[in-house]
Amino acid sequence: MFSRAIESKAIETLAVRVIILAFGLCTSIILTRYLGPSGRGELATILLWPAVFVYLTCSGFIESIVYFGAQREGESREILWFTSFTALSLSLVITFLAYLSLPAILSEKMTDYVGISRYYLITMPMLITTEFNSALLLSRMHFRAVNLLLVLTPVGYLVGVIGLVWGDRLDVRSLVMLLIVLSAVRFVGGFALLRRHRLLVKPRRDLALCGAMLRYAGTAHAGSAFHISNGYLDQALIASWLDPKSYGLYVTAASTARLPLVLSQAVVTLISPRLAQPGQAQERAAQLATVFRRYWLGSGAAMLLFLVVMTPGIPFLYGSAFDGSVHVAQVLLLGTLVLGAKDVLAAGVRALGKPRASSKAELVGILLTLPLLLVTLPMLGIMGAAITSVISYGASLAIIQIYIMRTYGVRAIALFLPVRDKGNESEASSRPFPNNREGTA
């Protein structure tokens, strides 16, 4: 199992995630109070599309950098060349495409914000490069550097928002400019951290390695793209079909209900490079099962506690104008429990070198999401979107769970229920693979 050093990093990473959660919650309360449902929806729409473009395009490459960076520690120059070339190429292409398509994808009620939305696209190349640099740091298990990059934006955003409130200049356009500055700070900070950890070396091209990383990225990208589409599709349709007020209520409900995702994000950050290390797949699968079981039991208890606090907390913190967010957030909290579990298992199988299994699970989710949204959104409004999320995440979790059980011989009890003895805990590592599909995943 993981060493004490890794366990200490786990505590540190979780602490950073909690700090990010606290700063994000404070910022959300201030923005919601000052902007109201409509202003909150307008800001969320501007920030939504660049994020969708970036992560839909780059997600598979991020997983590839983490996997190969952990597998091939002696090839830093070659991996940096792949990272730099890919970041530059993708930045040019998707920024141009986003610039052309924004007027068409923004709703009619957002036409006044086309200019500032296009200006915000300047963050896309910086975001892509920073995410790739962070992935390279993570592959070498420089968790503190990764955490520092993560915490820069929420801390800076809260400080900046408070400054705008103090100067009576808090509006959508000022917030966009603030986020552009913060993106530039993270961009520079990423390179500084690479240099500190001696990863900012002279790049060297290796076409064979580039080909292997592209193949892995292509396979992982399908699943990541489906995952991101599944996460953003509800918001995209709400922003396009419904009024900004409804979108503001949904964004508030979603951002609140998904606060406990810091737990799964911390676990994913830690297990991805650790499980990607060279070693026996059976032993690493046993580690994944043990970590997931502990996460599942802990997150379930945390969700129940959070539900008790969240229900009265939304109108208290955001005001009575957001009473319509409460029931939606309750449904989305169940989705958060399932989503976090699915993300941990999906990250685990990708680290085991099987990104295709994760892609299949995400594909099932997106195939359910779109038709369900087309039916539930007109009938139930934002509540329909919340119900759709729960169903979709549940289906993806079931697919990835079945794959792990069949491929690695892990029983459901070893994933979801407390084990009574140490023998059960190590069952996955001592049992042969009855249906081993290592070569076909």
Backbone CA Rg: 21 Å
> Span between N and C termini?
25 Å
Number of domains: 1
Report on the biggest sheet.
none
Number of helices: 16
Describe the structure.
The protein has 441 residues and is mainly alpha-helical. It has one domain. The chain has 16 helices and no strands. It has helices spanning 4-71, 76-105, 114-120, 123-139, 143-166, 172-196, 207-241, 244-257, 261-275, 281-318, 326-351, 355-380, 382-408, 412-416, 422-425, 427-430. The model is unreliable at 421-441 (pLDDT under 50).
Quick rundown:
83% of the residues lie in helices and 0% in strands.
Task: Give structural attributes.
16 helices
Topology:
Layout: H1 4-71, H2 76-105, H3 114-120, H4 123-139, H5 143-166, H6 172-196, H7 207-241, H8 244-257, H9 261-275, H10 281-318, H11 326-351, H12 355-380, H13 382-408, H14 412-416, H15 422-425, H16 427-430
